[in-house]
Amino acid sequence: MSYRAITDEASNTINANKNWTGISAEAVARMRLQNRFRTGVDIAKYTAKIIRNDMAAYDQDASKYTQSLGCWHGFIGQQKVISIKKHFGTTERRYIYLSGWMVAALRSEFGPLPDQSMHEKTSVPSLIAELYTFLRQADARELGMMFREADRARESGDVSLEQQSLNAIDNYQTHVVPIIADIDAGFGNAEATYLLAKKMIEAGACALQIENQVSDEKQCGHQDGKVTVPHEDFVAKIRACRYAFLELGVNDGIIVARTDSLGAGLTKQIAFSAAEGDDGDVYNSFLDCEEVAEGDFSNGDVLIKRGSKVLRPKRLRSNLFQFREGTGEDRCVLDCVNALQNGADLLWIETEKPHIDQIAGMVDRIRQVIPNAKLVYNNSPSFNWTLNFRQQVFDAWLSSGKDLTGYDRAMLMSAEYDSSELGQEADEKIRTFQRDSAARAGIFHHLITLPTYHTAALSTDNLAKEYFGEQAMLGYVANVQRQEIRQAIACVRHQNMAGSDLGDDHKEYFAGDTAVKAGGIHNTMNQFAS
Q: In CATH, what number is assigned to the domain containing residue 185?
């Protein structure tokens, strides 16, 4: 409904209740527009359609890939989306990623924790709700400023400018964007996964990313010791997530199935197999086994049969079974095909380096079975991007016979290579990595899991060095506030960002001319008006 239509509707309601004195239909319309989304499920339904539309657009044109940055606080997510709107004028194809790693490291009551599903699982839906609280507040703040512009135009008698302002309000683009939320390995069995998925969806998540690790052995995807589960176990959790979406009426909900098999050499259990060549049998075919002669086994041994051979899978003292080395890519492909055939919408392959050919090699094989298979890819800070891409360029040059005099592969991180031909070519490959891999390797969504963890540490280090050093207060003024002013960072007017002007509007709605407002001539925020 348009601004005027909502105002007219509110006016009819108010006029039908004669004792509702001092209630402004226009104020009601403004408050409704500032609170467009009533519940988290409303948000999940709205944002799920965005991703579905973006997936369809990507299928037609791979240049229309999507991106997100990981956020660990509502304020960080809000500022990211405000910046996107400021610089690009639209939030189209830009999302937020909620990283379980950052929840563990920054949001647990236990203090900083490794990414091993030890944090409180309820902290994940709490962060989703917090992110959307801040994004909805960004809507209310920006619309409030637009309402004030319309008021000023009306007071000055500029009918054309007033109509222009009302048109802008009617065509307003919300800060509410999709969140892809990390549910780890489900924090327990399939029932636990279902219960947590519901909490996350009720908070607003339209996309859940779940991984095929054992829940109680879960590790960060870029560390050692990962243990995967048979496909049957993983599919049960995919179905649990789908049931959660459907129960809440989010029929377009997105499930991102992540495989950690590339770096996982262990499995907790042997897959059930009813017949040779079925999915369980294929999963077990990757186990590292030794042939067993008849009677050559001990109490407690687990034996499997391949053809006419009886084999003993290698079992560690931890009671985990070991896969053969070099089978990671084959297992990834099998995992991905199985997940897509059993209800997943998108894939996530956790790799040890950002290498387009490696990713594309697996995606090509998956697409032989599922032609429109698409990936979510972690552009992880766990990768040394500079070193990886300089090594890739070095190796390509070496293969082509190019003169490498002046380059030492063991020293490629050196700053002396920053302006070199090799360094510049590597930087260009980093710059175009997302575009190129979207086209070549089927990557629909690019995300950085932990960017704001690192930017917070870097900016704080720089401020502390300056402020507590010789620069003192100038360290803050020159490097923070002056830059905020010159770059038009909204937060320089921090009272406005925190909702002071919104509060003034409400005071005026509630108390009329008797309202005591904060935004008067003595408000120091006026120093930033220009």
A: 3.20.20.60
